[in-house]
Amino acid sequence: MSILNYITWNVDPEIFSIGPLSIRWYGLLFALGFIIGQRILTKIYVAEGRTEGDVDVITIYMIIGTVVGARLGHTLFYSPEYYLSNPIEILKIWEGGLASHGATIGILFALWLFSRKQEFDYMWVLDRIVIVVALGGALIRLGNLMNSEIFGHPTSLPWGFIFERSTEYSHVPRHPTQLYESLSVFALFVLLYWLWNKYKAALPKGLLFGLFVTALFTFRFLVEFLKEDQVAKEATMALNIGQILSIPLILIGLFILFKVWQNPRPALPGGKLPENTRYKKV
C-alpha cells in the first residue's frame, strides 16, 4: 500500500509532565470545552437579560453532571459486572472510561436541579446549553483522537489512520471515527449558534434541544457501524451498546421537534425578554 493511501498517527497523548504531574491532550481539550463554553454561554445569557453570575452557577452544575454522569454511564452501561464487584474502581476516572450517553443523562439531571433551584424555565436552559455542549463534545472527540482510542474498522480510503500507539490495531489503516464525530458535532455547534444568534428569544421553545438530540444521536447511531467494539460482549450483539442507548434519545428528540412543529412557542410571549429581568418559569 502506498504511503499516500493512509495517514500515520503517532501523537503522544501526553503534552508534558513535571514530576508526577502529567498534562494530557484529552484533559486539556476537556477543560477547554468548559472554558470556551462558559464565554459563549455568558454572551448568550447577557444578550437575553441574564447575568454572568447565572453562568458561573450553571457551569458548576454542568461540570459535576458531566463528570459524574459520564463515569457512571461507562461503569453501568459497558462493564457493570466488573465495577459493581469493584466499586472503588468507579472513582478512578484518571484511568479512563467516560460515556457520552451517561454524560447526557447527568447533564439533563443537573440542569433540572439548576432550573428548579434558580427558578429558570427548564427547556429554555436546555435550548441554550446544547450550543456549548456541542462544542465541548467536538473537543472531547479530538481528545479521543489524541489518545488513539475509539477508532473504526479497517478502511482503504485515503484518509484512513494507522494508529501506531495501539498495539492491537496498529497494522492497517482504520476509519478515524473520532474525527468523523468531532467534525459533525462541530458543524452542529455552528448550526445551533447561528440559529440562536439570528432569532434569540424568538426561537420556538425546544427547537435547539430537539435538533441537538436528534442530530447528535442519529449520527452517533450511524457512525457506530464503523467502530470497533468497545467491550467484548458487543461482538455478539446486532446493535452495540452505543446504538441501543442512542435510540431512545433520538425518539425523544423527534418527539420534541414534533411538539415544536405542532405548537411553536417563543421563549417569551412576543419573542423577546423584558429589560433587566431574569427569565423564570412561565
Counting structural domains, the number is 1
Main sheet strand line-up: 1-4
Helix content: 55-70%
- Put simply, the count of helices is 8
Flag low-confidence runs: 269-282
Q: Compute the gyration radius: what is it?
A: 20 Å
**Overall average pLDDT:** 86
Largest sheet: 2 strands, parallel
Distance between the termini: 63 Å
Q: How many beta-strand segments?
A: 4
Shape: globular
Determine the strand fraction and express it as a percent band. 5-15%
Instruction: Supply the helix-strand structural class.
Output: mainly alpha
Reading the helices and strands in chain order gives EEEHHHHHEHHH
Tell me what you see in this structure.
The chain has helices at residues 25-47, 52-77, 80-85, 100-118, 122-146, 177-199, 207-223, 241-262, and strands at 7-9, 14-18, 21-24, 161-163. It contains 8 helices and 4 strands; from the N terminus they run βββαααααβααα. The strands form 2 sheets. It has a two-stranded parallel sheet. It has one domain. It starts with 6 loop residues before the first strand and ends in a 20-residue tail after the last helix. It has 282 residues and is mainly alpha-helical. A hairpin with a 2-residue loop joins strand 2 (14-18) and strand 3 (21-24). Helices cover 57% and strands 5% of the residues.
Short summary:
This protein has helices spanning 25-47, 52-77, 80-85, 100-118, 122-146, 177-199, 207-223, 241-262; strands at residues 7-9, 14-18, 21-24, 161-163.
Ordered list of secondary-structure elements with their pairings:
Layout: E1 7-9, E2 14-18, E3 21-24, H1 25-47, H2 52-77, H3 80-85, H4 100-118, H5 122-146, E4 161-163, H6 177-199, H7 207-223, H8 241-262
